Amino acid sequence: MVAEFGYGILAVSFLVAIYSVFAAVYGVTKQSAAWVQSARRSMLLMFPLISIAAAALIYLLVNDHYEVAFVYEVTSRSMPTYLKVTAWWGGQAGSLVFWSWLLAAFTSAVTIRKWDRDIEFLPWVIVVCSTTLIFFLGLVIFYENPFARFWNVIGNIEPHMFAPANATLFTAQDGRGLNPLLRHPGMVIHPPMLYLGFVSFVIPYAFAMAALITGRTDDRWIRLTRRWSLWAWLFLSLGLVLGGRWAYDVLGWGGYWGWDPVEIAAFMPWLTGTAFLHSVMIQEKRGLLKHWNMILVILTYDLVIFGTFLTRSGVLSSVHAFANSPIGPLFMAFVTLTFVASIALVIWRWPSLHSETEMKSMLSREALFLLNNLLFMSVLVVCFWGVIFPLMSELFTGQKVTVGPPFYERATGPLFAALMFLMGVAPLSAWGNSTIQTLGRAMWKSALAATIITVVLFFTYTQNIIALIGFFLIALVLLVTFQEFGRGALARQKTQNENFFVALSRLMGRNRRRYGGYIIHISMMLMAIGILGMEAFQIETQGTLAQGESMKIAEYKVVFDNVASWDNNAQEVNYTRATVKIYKGDQYIGELHPRKDMYFSGQPMSIPGQRSTMRDDLYVLLVDWQPISSTAATFKIFVNPLVNWLWIGSLLFFVGVIFAAWPDRDPAEEPSRATRRVSHTSAAD
Amino acid sequence: MTEETTPPKRGVSLTAQIIIWVFIAGLLALVGFGLNRARNPMAAVGDRVPDFDLVYYKGYEYNGTAQMKLSDLRGKIVVINIWASWCKPCEQEAPELEKAWQFYKDGNDVVFVGVDYVDTPAGANEYLKKFSITFPNAPDLKSNISSILNRQMGVPETYFIDREGILRNVKIGPFASPGEIQSIIQSIQ
Amino acid sequence: MKKSLYILSFVFLVSLLFAGAAFAQSSTPPTDDQVNAVAHKLYCPVCESTPLDVCPTDACKDWREQIRTMLAEGKSEAEILTYFEDQYGARVLAEPPKKGFYWLVYLLPPALILAGAVILFRSMKAWTTVKADAPNPVEATSAKKDDYVARLEEELKKQK
């Protein structure tokens, strides 16, 4: 009953979405505000509708309805309730519903806002959002239906939505259960974050398309979607970081990022999104780069869809890949359609997108922002090419190849270094014009201090050239950024007669986007410390130890104590847990318990024993052991220097974006909006 | 549309447009190709199997020939079994395959060829000895054979090729009995 | 006398050390770390996107044993990598070998980036030359003094 109900609701929302597109287009062509309003109302209906369908799905998941194929695939009786709920996005069909639900939530939020003087955007925003929604709902309804149930058709068990002739309902005793790798808390939040990021980028894209279609190509669409882009970017970034944390804690290979095609698929929209966040500032301040911002937002949107396509179609097989599914060609068609249509629109509107002013200096802030964009696009080119090249190779040579970490590290390393350098220079340059002299005068103190720090590090910490360059850049950016905070506050202190801290907080409050951005820069540098530590200083060793034997790595000593193995039948898993004692020098500092979980389904999982400090992480993996005597075991041990800074940096990053994106009560905006409304009510109909 | 009052400006030149669209089309074609391969991983039943080299393991040659092409076996029914020593289901079917081979080997009309996928010589040797395999066996050099037949989807898989070199049947997963193998071969004859 | 004895014993010790080193090279089994160092550069097709040294499958265990055997035979890392490439195809290497068609993977990104840089530089040049015709009087003066406070205030004002 519930399954049919849920499916029925999805079908209704599909129809409503189609109606909203037609109503919006009809409303525009007939100049009828009533039709546009109708489209808007049907758009607002989407969220409650899909919420009901989602509730039906959750009901089925939580209550062990194993006659439903999706429930059978992702849950089992032994799973706790919260995991049964989160299993919603643990499988293909459910995650598509989840996508649609998020998209419906965002489009509702965006349609609910006051449109006033932007009313001409409204129908087109509805068209773009609804079309995306129609696509996802269509996939769910026609191809990947989470409500399909098992039917016994003359001895064969087949999933169908509606009862085939002469079939009886088949209910499995128990489900297969969620892939144990996905039961980690990081994996429970990682997909929703990523999806939130993906979905919220649909909104800026929709406004960009609306701007192109209506020809209102000033920066209004950018101002309207500025916060959306920031939130989208925040979620996407958090999704990436959580994915990394999950890999570090669960995948058991000592790292957080493996340049896996699936990771890159999520990283590519982040790159264009980050470039977009920077380049919109140029358009807002200087009226430059209108074409470019359009292209960036289109790229971001289509890379989101393309990334989803890559990971779900089996085009690039990869550890994460969902099983081959019929939706591949449909995704391909949708990417093609939206990309071609968007690019065609940009070409059509090209003449009206020309810059309002000119560039004044090659060192001005806008010029440096352009350089920043070039670098982000370069990283994108490297990533895209690396992901796509195995396909090229297979097509032209018949041989598959791997494009792995060494390729990406070598290619992107210098680009990231250049980006860091820009991060150190750009905040000091002025909009409009800057010269070598002004920049040099602003920078020399920080540059000198960074050099001193690097020299000190050279004598005390490392002689590794790449690491030293990295540390120099990190120090430079941090110093320049702090200097910016300090200079701003001092200037304000002087002119406003405020105490330094009051001045600082007022300054930051007045210009939250800028100082939020600086906080983000600082957080990026903290993350860079962690990444640099891992890239330059990670060491590892492996060995087999008898009981009581020890192994040394860096200043640590690891002593094998014992290993025990037992079954947990309720969770359908066999645990093998080793105990090792850790010494730093000769001082005992604790025990670690690396674990190997072998699920009865055959899925292995290595949970490392970790001891985390600001200086380094000791990361012990149980590789192998003698099952009967338990007297010897093989361990793989990593020392991951500075990696904690990566996680600390991501926390600060979160703070920075929230600071920049938090909606403010801007008293200056309300009255002006009211006056605008007056002038626009006549134009609206 | 009030903004349209700005003076008309230059659009995108035709050459640039052509370059952009050709580029996009090429990219899409490439991804489409990948998608097509992903969706049809197996060589299609009814198609001619592309030719490939077989370089046999020592002691597992075909009638004393150490190296040959698949096409050299034209005129015979060829049963290609893809296996690996680390693959548990392969161990299940290994004795059945050998039994079936014993049935056919004197007729000189059906050839069994084992193709060892992603395996080490030491592991392969041990496996072949353990199951007393006697039919010809070759490593899957450069993973070439498996990429032609199954795009490296899994082991074991068995491909039945008729006398004209046409793929007639594919079995994914292990055989349960020699009879199962025989009945497929019979259906080809 | 005493000194020469000292030197002699030192020479003896050193020669012992060298003998020990030679011995280690020929017959002590390679350590896990030596095996992993090679394995880290290989990707086994059975577990995609995971380097061989951390892949837990049986197939990969066999591969690591193969590396161990070859190291024990005195093969160099390069020889082992070549062997694996010949045996299992180019896909086992962490990145495509630098030959023939595969050069494309290395050459295209720098070419595109360079093209991007040239386009960007030229358009920036074009924008700035337009400006050069009409010199901005503000520019000349503002560069001299520390205009930071003024600039900041101006920017704060621009924030709507």
Q: How are the elements arranged and paired?
A:
The complex is a heterotrimer of chains A (685), B (189) and C (160).
Chain A: H1 2-29, H2 33-62, H3 69-74, H4 81-86, H5 92-112, H6 122-143, E1 149-153, E2 156-160, E3 167-169, H7 185-200, H8 202-214, H9 220-251, H10 261-286, H11 290-313, H12 328-349, H13 365-397, H14 405-425, H15 436-460, H16 465-496, H17 500-510, H18 512-537, E4 539-546, E5 550-553, E6 556-568, E7 573-584, E8 587-592, E9 595-599, E10 604-607, E11 609-612, E12 616-625, E13 632-641, H19 644-661, H20 669-684
Antiparallel strand pairs in A: 1-2, 1-3, 4-13, 5-6, 6-7, 7-8, 7-9, 9-10, 11-12, 12-13
Helix pairs in contact in A: 1-2, 1-6, 2-5, 2-6, 5-6, 5-7, 6-8, 7-9, 8-9, 8-11, 9-10, 9-19, 10-11, 10-13, 11-12, 13-14, 14-16, 15-16, 16-17, 16-18, 17-18, 18-19
Chain B: H1 14-39, E1 53-55, E2 67-69, E3 77-83, H2 88-104, E4 110-116, H3 121-130, E5 137-139, H4 144-149, E6 157-161, E7 167-172, H5 178-188
Parallel strand pairs in B: 3-4, 4-5
Antiparallel strand pairs in B: 1-2, 3-6, 6-7
Helix pairs in contact in B: 2-5
Chain C: H1 2-27, H2 32-39, H3 58-72, H4 77-88, H5 103-132, H6 137-142, H7 148-158
